[in-house]
Specification:
The complex is a heterodimer. Chain A is an alpha+beta fold. Chain A has 3 domains: 2-43 and 283-454 and 664-793, no CATH class; 54-266, no CATH class; 473-647, no CATH class. In chain A, the strands form 3 sheets. In chain A, strands 14, 15, 16, 17, 18, 19, 20 and 21 form an 8-stranded mixed beta sheet that branches. A 6-stranded mixed barrel of chain A has the order 3-4-9-6-8-7. Chain A has a 4-stranded antiparallel beta sheet with strand order 13-22-12-23. In chain A, a hairpin with a 2-residue loop joins β19 and β20. The radius of gyration of chain A is 34 Å and the shape is elongated. By secondary structure, chain B is α/β, with parallel strands linked by helices. Chain B has one domain (33-40, 74-224): P-loop containing nucleotide triphosphate hydrolases (Rossmann fold), CATH 3.40.50. Chain B has helices at residues 44-51, 74-83, 100-110, 115-128, 144-157, 174-191, 202-205, and strands at residues 2-13, 16-28, 33-37, 59-64, 67-68, 85-88, 162-166, 194-198, 210-215, 218-224. In chain B, the strands form 2 sheets. A 6-stranded mixed beta sheet of chain B has the order 6-7-8-3-9-10. Chain B starts with a strand and ends with a strand. Classes of the chains: A alpha+beta, B alpha/beta.
């Protein structure tokens, strides 16, 4: 029976090639999008999952509550926290381990002591207990020896890179930042879906810092992980935590310190805190994508339902005859579902091919290795099967019920009215479909508009053609700064050079308490930027009052920005000149006020900023280039750099690129929206085309009658188009409030944003109506211009 | 009023010409009631379609009211439909989604007749054909004869000078058929409307005043009916 059904299904689909094509096209594209979204979500949800007892692993993170209601979070903890917690929380936690991220120069010497390899790598100083918390796979050695200083553990990839094969690595020596380490173990490569990308692990005891006992200093590079004892609830730690905070945070600071225990499976999704891999995917975005995927498949299914019920009439005779021959309704439903399933399976196959084609683009967009291998991840196969069944039922069940429900007598006489199968329902579905489409169009328009706005927003400084070159900063290299700078200035093509801590706009910010013109600390922190006297010239920053700082190696004059004065209620910038500002024990007068510039991404507002010279804090050389000869200039810069700092590894970055990276998330979102809006528009409009084709065929006779009654082609086209235009118009009205809610919420995430005007909404209406008109007219014109007699001749 | 000269019509099928009409030449004057008769496949309907400009002849010329309409632009043809020609079909061809009233109104809308004028004309037609009570019914709620009455009322609404009817009683019982034919006769005699009908029935043909006998696409006989 099933085989026969399949055969009939195939013939029927072949007979109605046009509708079948529309269905398959819509469904396969919808399914491909769905599959892509699914494998992306699967990848994102797989982060940090592969560890034993992962539900007992937490990261200790920090928070500060300020008196003005602001809250600040950090993924890092003060360095003394780990040993203190190990001691104070021992009843609750099995293990605690500190991990410190660092970047340094790896140097491998061959047997003769000659340098064989020198590269800059990220490394982690790590306590051996870390491996007691996370069960990594050890290829050789173990972590016990990591308790002694001077040892190193490598990942397979690194060990292969350094020593040819990881099997030779054990016992070899590696230089990291001029210190020597012995390889005591090799672990298997850590998969990409991990928030701690371990490659090079050094004994924590080898980590030197002046902050080891300072509770007041928190850096995002110092993390700490705990593993609870079995059967301990994380809530049980709250009371001891309060005592812990009181015990250790004795210094007065503007923000009230606190700590939180962040579950391991939250690390990849929580954008309040960062992580070492730098990859965060907020759950909200994952859900957003899932919703879009769901809507895509609904839209495609609606096409199917509409076309199937519309075609139902032409199937009525077959249904009648089958019923007379003794077919039960259930058997008919089964037959029609088989037909649907055939289409769905063909679409699924095609959709998988499309997925494979789109995958590289997707990987590129997200910068991750998303896999579409059903062998590696059987859940993908399960999803494909689920998708097939879900779509078959969603799209096939209703039409099957309608068609199989025909009265046999009427059906045989072909007297089933053309409106069978719910003309009303079809209209509702089309409105629903287009409401989704229009919402996506509006969303896309607003996102693109906001991105353009962000791009064109004046930053208050000029980031073009500025290269940021790393500056190794220790007591030795510091001595060479002056020569380095003057050498750079001689290079043709270099226009300005400024040594500084960070460029005007940076993700790297640090706040400090300060006092202005009094001994009392201000109730907010100031963002300190250390830079030399050429900072303003290099970045084209403007002074609104006073003068630039003069050349100095240590802080003896300050520049402030307008926001700082505004926050201090100083209205006239001139007033601030000469006032004494004290920060971290360093008192100096304010000599100039800088016009405000955007020092963060446009999600955030401008910080109060302080600029002062301090050679000990210069980590970058900002080089303003003549844009005509950047390439050759940078080559010369690199040569000079390597001559000056032979022990380090050169790295450069262009400020423009860095700023662009702030909006990577939005760019990805914008691209996604463009693509999915395109897909959904395509699906909706081929569905519309199918429906108008059907309506036109169905009304051929009416069109012919009207023609002999004297209707002109234009009048007929108008008549056929009318209901579609009205439906799309209603869909617009439905979509507007939805889209408004959605985009205004999204825009709220930007401190600098466009005013939401009516234009994206009007434009979306115009676009949807125009495309509808074109799609529909294309078909209805053909119907209206068709030869009258063909429709009237035969009875 | 209608002047056909050497009208030929054939369908080419794989190079073979299937002639439907051959060298048809005839003149139909204002006020005539002509019946076209002949066996199935003789070309009666095709001839009527050509007269109604629903089909174009392959050769020959056709003058309608003194104007050469052999191949006419769509705009002009629609103009003729709106003002001069009314069609009545064997299968009535009413629009299923519209009521009796709306069906009759349709040609007036296309003719852009004002609403007061429309209402009075429709009222007049409904009254004349005794279908006032049925005006809000849909076609499938009427008997065949009633549907054909509506079809004729619709054809008359635009006040055409000629009515083309393709087997108007073909689907009807004899009593209803008689009613329709006497209606045609009355329209022809009292209002001077030219009527051309295709029919199988000798009896129906007797209502008219002229019969064109067609066989194999050729006019065999052109006789006047003596009343």
């Amino acid at each position: 029976m099933f085989k026969l059904n399949l055969k009939i299904a195939w013939r029927n689909l072949w007979k109605n090639k046009g509708y079948t094509l529309i269905n398959i096209l819509g469904l396969s594209i919808g399914m491909a999008s769905c599959i892509l979204i699914f494998i992306f979500i699967r990848y994102q949800m797989s982060f940090d999952k592969d560890f034993k007892d992962s539900d007992r692993i937490y990261r200790v993170v920090s928070s500060w509550d300020y008196s003005d209601g602001n809250q600040f979070f950090s993924q890092g903890v003060p360095l003394p926290l780990t040993p203190a917690m190990r001691n104070d929380f021992s009843p609750y936690i099995e293990k605690i381990a500190a991990i410190e991220q660092s970047t340094g120069v790896i140097q491998i010497n061959d047997a003769a002591g000659k340098e064989r390899l020198k590269t800059q790598e990220d490394a982690f100083y790590i306590e051996p207990d870390f491996f007691g918390i996370f069960d990594y796979k050890w290829l050789s050695g173990d972590y016990a020896a990591l308790k002694d200083p001077g040892n190193i553990v490598l990942s397979k990839e690194m060990a292969d890179k350094f020593f040819g094969s990881w099997k030779n690595a054990l016992g070899k020596s590696v230089n990291y930042d001029m210190a020597s380490y012995i390889v005591i173990g090799v672990i298997d490569d850590v998969a990409e879906n991990n928030s701690v990308p371990l490659k090079i692990m050094l004994s924590y005891k080898s980590f030197k810092s002046k902050n080891l006992d300072r509770w007041g200093s928190v850096g995002s590079s110092s993390e700490s992980y705990i593993k609870l004892k079995p059967n301990v609830n994380i809530e049980a730690l709250n009371t001891p935590l309060q005592a812990f905070l009181k015990k250790y945070y004795t210094e007065k600071a503007p923000g009230k310190e606190g700590h939180l225990f962040q579950p391991l499976n939250d690390i990849h999704y929580n954008s309040k805190f960062g992580n070492f891999s730098g990859r965060i995917m907020p759950k909200k975005q994952i859900y957003g994508l899932a919703v879009i995927g769901f809507f895509l498949i609904i839209t495609a299914s609606i096409n199917f339902i509409n076309l199937a019920t519309a075609q139902a009439v032409s199937r009525s005779k077959e249904v009648g005859i089958r019923k007379v021959m003794g077919s039960q309704r259930g058997q008919l439903v089964a037959q029609f579902l088989t037909e649907t399933l055939t289409i769905v399976l063909v679409s699924l196959l095609l959709g998988s091919v499309l997925t494979e084609i789109a995958l590289p683009g997707m990987q590129n967009l997200f910068g991750s290795k998303i896999s579409f291998s059903i062998f590696e991840h059987p859940i993908i196969l399960a999803f494909l099967l689920f998708l097939a069944v879900f779509v078959s039922l969603l799209a096939g069940f209703y039409p099957a019920i309608v068609i199989s429900g025909f009265n046999p007598v009427l059906a045989i006489k072909n007297k089933v009215s053309a409106n069978t199968g719910g003309l009303g329902l079809r209209k509702v579905l089309v409105v629903f479909q287009f409401a989704i489409t229009v919402t996506l169009i509006i969303g896309t328009l607003v996102i693109l508009q906001q991105m353009k706005y962000v791009r064109e927003q004046p930053l208050g400084f000029n980031p073009t053609a500025i290269a940021m070159v790393d500056l190794p900063n220790d007591s030795l290299t510091m001595q060479r700064f002056d020569t380095f700078k003057s050498q750079l200035k001689q290079v043709p093509g270099v226009e300005e050079v400024s040594l500084c801590r960070t460029p005007p706009s940076s993700q790297n910010n640090n706040g400090s308490s300060f006092s202005y013109n009094s001994s009392k600390d201000a109730d907010f922190q100031v963002n300190t930027k250390n830079a030399d006297e050429d900072y303003l010239k290099t970045f084209d920053l403007k002074l609104v009052a006073g003068r630039n700082i003069v050349k100095s190696d240590t802080i003896n004059e300050y520049l402030v920005n307008e926001t700082l004065l505004k926050k201090l209620n100083v209205n006239n910038p001139q007033e601030a000149i000469g006032k004494i500002l004290s920060m971290g024990g360093m008192k100096a007068p304010i000599v100039g006020v800088i016009q405000d510039f955007k020092n963060r991404s446009l999600h955030e507002s401008i910080d109060p900023i302080l600029v002062g010279s301090s050679r000990a804090r210069y980590f970058n050389a900002a080089i303003k280039l003549n844009s005509a000869q950047m390439l050759t200039t940078m080559k010369n810069v690199q040569k000079i750099w390597q001559r000056t700092f032979p022990e380090s590894v050169y790295s450069e970055l262009f400020l423009n690129e860095q700023i662009k990276n702030y909006y990577q998330g939005e760019q990805v979102m914008g691209t996604l929206f463009k693509v999915f809006a395109g897909v959904i528009i395509f699906i909706s409009f081929i569905g519309l085309f199918g429906l108008i084709s059907f309506v036109a065929t169905q009304r051929t006779k009416e069109v012919a009658i009207r023609k002999v009654l004297g209707a002109s082609t234009i009048e007929l086209v108008k008549m056929l188009n009318g209901s579609f235009i009205v439906m799309v118009f209603i869909a617009n009205l439905v979509a507007w409030p939805l889209a408004y809610l959605f985009v205004s919420k999204w825009l709220n995430g930007f401190a600098y944003r466009i005013d939401l005007s009516i234009w994206p909404f009007m434009l979306a209406m115009l676009i949807s109506m125009t495309i509808t008109l074109i799609t529909v007219s294309f078909r209805s014109y053909r119907a209206a211009a068709a030869n009258t007699i063909d429709a009237l001749k035969y009875e | 009023m209608i002047q056909l000269t050497n009208i030929e019509k054939y369908y080419a099928n794989k190079g073979v010409k299937n002639y439907v009409l051959r060298l048809v030449t005839t003149t139909i004057n204002q006020g005539e009631f002509v019946s076209i008769m002949g066996p199935s496949g003789a070309g009666k309907s095709t001839l009527l379609n050509i007269i109604g400009m629903l089909e174009e002849p392959t050769y020959g010329t056709y003058h309608f009211m003194g104007e050469d309409v052999t191949s006419l632009s769509e705009r002009k043809r629609i103009e003729l439909y709106r003002n001069h020609i009314g069609f009545v079909f064997q299968a009535y061809h009413l629009i299923d989604e519209m009521t009796v009233y709306e069906n009759i109104e349709a040609p007036l809308l296309y003719k852009k007749v004002g609403s007061a004028e429309r209402a009075s004309r429709i009222a007049d037609l409904l009254d004349r054909f005794n279908i006032v009570a049925k005006k809000d019914l849909f076609p499938n709620q009427l008997s065949g004869g009633q549907q054909q009455l509506v079809g004729i009322a619709r054809a008359l609404a635009a006040q055409p000078s000629i009515i083309l009817a393709d087997e108007p009683t073909g689907n009807l019982q004899s009593a209803q058929a008689e009613e329709i034919m006497s209606l045609f006769k009355k329209l022809n005699e009292e209002e001077g409307i030219t009527i051309i009908q295709v029919t199988h029935s000798e009896k129906n043909a007797q209502y008219g005043n002229r019969i064109l006998h067609i066989a194999d696409g050729v006019v065999k006989e052109d006789v006047a009916v003596l009343s």
